[in-house]
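Reviewer 2 asked us to include a model.

Predict the structure of this chain.
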Amino acid sequence: MKYRFYRSCVEWPQSTVHCPGGLRDMIDRRLEITRRTFLTHVDRDSLAAIEEVLCYASHPSRGLTMAADWHVEYFRSVLFGKRVYGFRHSAIEYVFTGV
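Predicted model (structure tokens):
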């Protein structure tokens, strides 16, 4: 199963930010993983669309790629009892969930 983009923390419903198992708990319990591990679990098309919105280049010859940006942190965590994967970019979490 490939995890697909669900939403970023800035789009999160306020009612599920601080409730048990919600966004805050997910962030507090995240475990850092490598980009390689992240890529084995997430849908690449879903990720490519986000990378484009964040203005990353699709190839190093065209500029900074997300893979080369050492500021991006990849993680896995649990949201309401379900495993999720995500990345943190500019203090914003982008969450991928299983369907």
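Residues 4-97 form one domain. The mean pLDDT is 96. We have added this to the supplementary material.
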